[in-house]
Structures are given as structure tokens and as C-alpha cells.
Amino acid sequence: MASATDTLRAGLPDRYLTPGDIAEMFEVPLETVYQWRKKRTGPPGFRAGKHLRYDPASVRTWVNEQMAADQAA
Question: How much is the pTM?
């Protein structure tokens, strides 16, 4: 089975991503993902009941925005 990183690069996964998926994709600690959400600096997430989830399309858009901002700097 492909990891979340491989799947996102090749095409969008067919499920919503968890905070653990995001941490694995960006190779950061899970706490960093939660801090990004708290500071509103990371990919946009949403609550499904008590669970935090990320839409793969929104994550891809956020990555593209980060890359564009980095190239413009």
C-alpha cells in the first residue's frame, strides 16, 4: 500500500487525511501539525465530530501556495 506522501504526489488520495498523515507527509512532529492549526499557518483542516481531517485537494492547494510564496520571496 502506498504511503500518503506517495499517493498525494501521484494523485489525490481517495480519503480524508488525518493529522498523522500530514505529519508523515511533511516529516514534522504531530505537535507541529496541531500548532499549525492553532496558528492558522498550515493546511486547512476541518472537524468531523471530534476528529480533525484534511481534504487532500486543500492540502495540495496549500502546498502550491507555499511554493509560490517561497519563489516570490
Answer: 0.79
